[in-house]
Amino acid sequence: MTFGFKYSLEQSRDMLSLVDILIYRAQHQPEQTAYTFLGDGDKETARLTYQELDRQARALAAYLQSLGATNERALLVYPPGLEFVSAFFGCLYAGVIAIPVNPPRPNRSVSRLQAIVVDASASIALSTESFIDTIKRQITENPNLAKLNWVATCTIADERSSAWQGSTASSDTLAFLQYTSGSTGKPKGVMVSHKNLLSTSADIDCRWEHNSESVMVTWLPTFHDMGLIYGVLQPLYKGFPVHMMSPLSFIKRPYLWLKAMSRVRATHSCAPNFAYDLCVRKVAPEQRATLDLSNWGVAVNGSEPVRADVLRQFAQTFEPCGFKMTSFCPGYGLAEATLKVTTVRKGDLPTFYKVDAEALEQNQVIEATESQEKAYTLVGCGYSEIDAKIVIVNPKELTCCAPSEVGEIWVSSASVAGGYWRYPEETEKTFHAYLKDTGSGPFLRTGDLGFLKNGELFVTGRIKDVIIIRGSNYYPQDIELTVEQSHPALRAGCGAAFAVEVQSQERLVVVQEIERSYLHKLDVDEVVGNICQALKAEHELEPYATVLLKTGSLPKTSSGKIQRQTCRTQFLEKTLDYEHLVFGGGFLKEESSNRELLMQPEMKI
User: Fold this and answer.
1) Residue 597: is its pLDDT beyond 90?
2) ∠ CA 394-462-187 to the nearest 5 degrees?
């Protein structure tokens, strides 16, 4: 462990861990504000300098070391705020394996949290005193949570910092477990090392040009990989300030995100596709008139499918505020690759590639003509940097695809994590794949489908979510977009499409949330009719069943990804909480007053 550095961070070879980097910042930039929290999404309520963060991390680390917790697993159960940041680095300083988790809401299920506790064999839970008190009943009523040693980190005095015994962290040391969102399966803990994190930070920095003059604003949850790695760790890596706010503040008032960007002259920020769409729909003209977004140079769009229409609408809507289309940096990544695989470089225009829809259904990539009606516009997710290698593979044959074929995306790089915690068989299958035709490997199998065009990655969907009907492949996000745009009563980004087997044939089911303002005045026949017409026109498909849900009831992950497989399971198990269920084109209906789902013959799970 080195405590004195003769060179700049970028030049030093002694930086083997995030612990080294924070100590460097605390020594060379002690009074610089590192993290600021906007409590209501607007006004500053807390801030941390590098020196203060280092001191708090040492104090918590000393306490954890006194418990003999080194190499143990600790849940980080925090509401939005800077307490999470101090706790995360306290774990790193102590050699405790941090597990960021979504804090449970009072009187809500804690089944996911319990599953993580059991899977990780966690012994400690870190949180704030007030939040522990808020969920006290849930803790006492659940044996797996009650047996944890709950520590209110805000009660640990800074004076403990002098008792810190130092760090033995190296590049190969396990930093934290990132539990996957579970959009297509059970949550698994991805083992992320310091080397993975530093490799990712260097890779991210390669084309997004962070420097000491950069300023970031983020509202992404810190238990999500993009919120943690880009929103918290990247600013530390390059030594620039970040302003954090609650995800709920953004959801309630999207304007607050852009207002903060404007006020602090932010240069970098990141969000999923739905966030940009929400800003277009919810930020009023008089609010837009107050914004100056001309300093915003990198607007990362990732974590969910990137839509060309959303990029165009956002750029057009906020162009008078100084926003430029070249600021958009769509990207692709996953927790197993420590967040990032490819991104569009700063200053480059995003690539919009119009392809033949019918060819894509057969896993073929053919550029569409300008006049072609049945076409999809895909958004390029950019390029890999530094050491990342990407190959497109036939997922059944395990051989390389032709350039014009869609296949599974395989990745090899120093950012690829070490595997799944205590799942050796799944680790071997997912993280140590080899090509049958060339023997090249090992590769990470992402489970995502896509293709490369002139070196740029285009993502088309997930293998497990692809709908196969009459021999053609349909991507659920395309069907979902068609459905949500068919009637104003349907919520954007809140639908799921999947297939069920009926009488030995795959049939389409669409599930869609209703806008709150339409709940009590919905014309079900009109809505379902519009959906059926749109699906017929766009995809030549007829839904076997259309399920309309209340606002906010579609199964999603903690980071907002649609859980299509969970939705499908609930539909088949008759547990989906729906408002209206319509089979076919409306010949057979069932209302929410009768919760016994009316299943058709020979429907198989």
Assistant:
1) no
2) 115
For 305-318, write each residue's pLDDT tens digit: 888 999 999 999 99
Q: CA nearest 468: which of 479, 484, 483? A: 479
What letter represents residue 356's amino acid?
A: D
Record the tokens describing residue 319, joined without a space: 């162009």
Token representation of residue 280? 């277009």
* Arithmetic mean of pLDDT, 342-349: 95
β-strands 444-453, 407-412: how paired? Answer: antiparallel
Dist. CA 452–CA 603, nearest whole Å: 38
Tokens encoding 157: 């005095």
108, exposed or middle or buried, with CB in 10 Å at 0-12, 13-18, 19+?
A: exposed
In the block, residue with structure tokens 């956002």: 314
Query: Which amino acid is present at 88?
Result: F
Computed over every residue of the chain, the mean pLDDT equals 89
Per residue in 452-501, pLDDT tens? 999 999 999 888 888 888 767 788 888 998 999 999 999 988 999 999 88
> Does residue 185 register a pLDDT over 60?
no
Helix (H, G, I), strand (E, B) or coil at 452: strand
Q: Alpha-carbon distance 396 to 189, whole Å?
A: 26
The answer to whether the peptide bond before residue 285 is cis (omega within 30 degrees of 0) is: no
* Secondary structure class of 486 (helix, strand, coil): coil
Q: Is 162 helix (H, G, I), strand (E, B) or coil?
A: helix
Q: What is the mean pLDDT of residues 62-77?
A: 97
DSSP state of 230: I
- For the chain, the maximum distance between any two Cα atoms, rounded to a whole number of angstroms, is 77
Please report the beta strands in 326-455, taking only residues with DSSP state E, as ranges in sequence order.
328-332, 342-343, 352-356, 375-379, 389-393, 407-412, 444-453
Rounded mean pLDDT of 417-426? 95
Nearest CA-CA partner of 518 in 550, 482, 496, 480 = 550
Of 546, 553, 477, the residue nearest 519 (C-alpha) = 553
CA-wise closest residue to 419 among 410, 404, 430 = 430
Token pair listed for 272: 């999923």
Residue 188 has pLDDT above 70, yes or no: yes
CA–CA distances in Å: residue 211 to residues 9, 18, 215, 234: 12, 18, 9, 11
pLDDT tens-digit profile of 430-444? 999 999 989 999 999
Dihedral sign for Cα atoms in the order 280, 226, 331, 237: positive
Please name which of 322, 344, 9, 381 lies closest in space to residue 208, comparing C-alpha atoms.
344
* pLDDT recorded at residue 487: 94
